[in-house]
Amino acid sequence: MLEAVCFILFASLTAIYLIADGFDLGVGTLSLFLRDTRDKAAAAYALWPIWNGNEVWLLSAVVLLMAAFSPVYAAILSSFYIPAILLAAAIIFRGISLEFYDKVTNAFLKNTLFLFFGIGSAFIAFAVGFVAGNVMRGIPFESGSFTILPALIDPFSLFMGSSTLFYCALHGAVFLGYKQHGKARAFFMPAFIAFIASAAGATLSGTLTTSLGTALGKPLVFPAVGLCMAALTSLFFASRRGHTRTAFVLSSLLGIGAVISCAAIMFPNMLATPGRMLTAYSAASSNLPVIIAITITGIPLAICFNILSYWVFRTVRKKQ
Amino acid sequence: MFEVALARMQFALTIGFHFLFPPITIGLIWFILVIETLGWRRNDRSYTALGVFFGKIFTITFAVGVVSGIVMSLQFGTNWGEFTKYSNALFSSILLIEIFFAFFIESTFLGIYLFGRHKVPRWLHWFSIVMLALGATLSAFWIIAANSWMHSPAGYALSNGKVVLTDLGAAIFNKTTFPRFFHTIVSCLVIGAFFVSGISAYLIATKKAIVYAKKTLLMGLTAGPVLSVVQVIPFGHMQVLAVAETQPANLATMEGLYETQSNAPLLVFGIPIEQPPYITNRIEIPGLLSVMLSGNRDHVVAGMRSFPEEDRPPHAITFLSFHAMVAIGIAMIVIMASSLILHVTGKLSVMKPLLYLLAFLSPLPIVATQLGWITTEVGRQPWIIYGLLRTKDAVSISVSANALIFSLVLIGALYIIIISLYLFLFVRILRKGPPVDKALDVGG
User: Fold this and answer.
1) E strand or H helix that includes residue B294
2) Do B425 and A103 touch (CB under 8 A)?
3) Inter-chain residue contact B81 with A74, CB threshold 8 Å
4) What is d(CA A253, CA A232) in angstroms, rounded to the nearest whole number?
5) What are the phi and psi torsion angles at B285 (to 5°)?
6) From the list A67, A87, A146, which residue is nearest B92 (CB)?
């Protein structure tokens, strides 16, 4: 029972991370397509006050996994050693690039930092989905070396990576729309179509090439997928009518729906490795009540802090 | 064994790099709070300008501290998987508390502090600095509590070869948490005092903002001597007592004591040789170590040789880093006290070489904190969790040597780039100086 609660809390933190950091990773990805200096600056200004808080959600999900399901955490990160280190490097360099971007004056350095911010954002979004895809399908090894890298690349994981990337791009485009960014409109449709295509690819390859197809009948899977469909459809119309705030809520719902779908497909399984299956029950730590107490009091508090900073910076920031 | 050495090198690199930055921000933010409070209450534009100026240094330092910290928590999974599994949820529960009850506070109010100056009411802006200072100090507390648990584990039971939490309060407030917390937090404040006075000295020497910078120079030099003394007595002393109580092998190594004896001498100077452990050129004060630890010359202190060889920490590094830290600590008291006297008598601000010297010496406490960190972490060896789990048994078994070399090189290269960028920006902020009102001050 407590194991299930912890699993749900982990899924919740993942969902919050996806919708909170998702839009700033998305803005970063889209910024690769910005040419005009003022457009770039406007994108960065929209993120500066809030990206830091968004990223803490990643830490909270990671540490909750470490606390509640330590064998899963250790197995995932040591097996995916190279991708995890690359991800860490990207997180560092992306953050530094974004923070230092407005503090350098040299045009070449400025553009390079902005480029790294864009590449880093896209890489993180893709890598998070890619690793999640591999974790979901199960890994045929438990070894953190170079030789296993080719085994990581399979259609489902690639589609999961690209779905996450394009979800972030879509969510980022919607956020830019809310912030009245000039290029938001141009970004919306390509991101929308790319997301639908890759999500369809992930569903198809997941059903055909992995054992996940059998899990589609689990409870909550269809309602969650239904939520995604409904959010996606309404998002299309809300965006066309220029309801930017509603659109942002809807693209957030889409992210929540996607995480619930994945979590519902997996539960109670967490990671399949050769010869054993780590589940929420077999991998749970011994002091779940403490972890649950910390997390359950922590989440509302953190959400309040997030809302406070979103509210303070709710309008478009102009350069002083 | 090669894998263990590589994993340890990587952890030393990442924690050493990370630990350069948060102590600066923790120390600096309290000074910024004082500066901004004066600027607000006295409606003094010079303080506000100084607040903006030190805020810029704070911002770039904070950014590097945050991102380099994320790597730390990932490494518990990538490189120290067995540690994570063994310590079960105990260690990570404390980290979880840190995230929810410190990181979110910091990140939220950082945004408001940095970008809200002209957007939110003045009180809310001020309040965000208060929260930022509290959040930073609180997060230091949680991470030090987690680290102290590895030094003096408490509140646990062993079951199936794993640690099981029995008492969260006892685990957090273990025997060394408070000595370690105070010793660390005061060292952060000393860093802040040295930074504020050193940078102000630079601003005066280069005539960028003489009238303004004299205010912060006085602030740094008033706090500096007090803090540097308090850092040694009582807090440094308390930390040594805590080590003596919980890690006697570490104490013997730090102090360079071979044989168990009463009337144990305090080694003031010596050159350590690693194998066989020996110290040449000794200068010692008979009986003082016994007296310092218990107030009594007859107090028996355990020597290195009384511990089995496999339980002794590396000798030379522990001894050297400890003694170098103490030496720098004493030097800092002298520097701060003499600078204050020179400043009060009006000599400091007209003696350019001294101002430059003070500026040049401002990173000194950072060196001391790094040395202190090395002493405590190397001195804990060969244990990762003292008395429970050895470091060699804590690494992820499945990670290969070439994967480790790859990550070490990648992170090393990345950190070189980041520190260069950081220093580049740091120097630029210094060169530019605070935004000076020409009617009130020279420079610009």
Assistant:
1) helix B288-294
2) yes
3) yes
4) 9
5) -110, 115
6) A67
Cis before B234 (ω within 30): yes
- Nearest-angstrom CA–CA distance, A13 and A64: 9
State pLDDT tens for residues B60-95. 999 899 888 888 888 887 888 888 888 877 888 898
For residue B112, give the nearest of A60, A64, A312 by CB distance. A312
Compute φ and ψ for B89, nearest 5 degrees: -100, 5
Peptide bond preceding B276: is omega within 30 degrees of 0, i.e. cis? yes
Residues of A in contact with B101 (CB under 8 A): 298, 301
- Give the other-Cβ count within 10 Å of A277's Cβ: 13
Contacts of B56 in chain A (CB under 8 A): 103
Partner-chain contact B96 A301, CB within 8 Å: no
Question: Token pair for residue A225?
Answer: 């997928």
Closest residue in A to B394 (Cα) is A74
pLDDT in tens, A84-103: 889 999 998 898 888 888 88
State whether residue A2 sits within 8 Å of chain B by CB: no
Is the Cβ–Cβ distance between A171 and A16 less than 8 Å? no
Q: Quick one: pLDDT at residue B419?
A: 93
Measured CA to CA, the distance from residue A97 to residue B60 in angstroms comes to 11
CB contact under 8 A, A49 and B115: yes
B163 - beta bridge partners?
A: B158
Please give the Cα distance from A125 to A163 (Å, whole number). Answer: 9
User: What are the residues facing B272 on neighbouring strands?
Assistant: B279
pLDDT tens per residue across span A297-318:
989 998 888 888 888 887 654 4
- Number of Cβ atoms within 10 Å of the Cβ of A226: 12
- pLDDT of A228-265, one tens digit each? 989 999 988 988 888 888 888 999 999 999 999 888 88
Q: Report CB contact under 8 Å: B96, A295.
A: yes
- Cβ distance of A84 and B103 shorter than 8 Å: no
How far is the alpha carbon of A208 from chain B, nearest alpha carbon, in Å? 31
From CA A182, how far away is CA A203, in angstroms rounded?
34
Q: Beta-strand (E) ranges in B255-364? A: 266-273, 278-285
Q: What is this structure's pTM?
A: 0.90
**Is the pLDDT at A320 greater than 50, yes or no?**
no
Q: Please tell me if residue A310 touches chain B, with a CB cutoff of 8 Å.
A: no
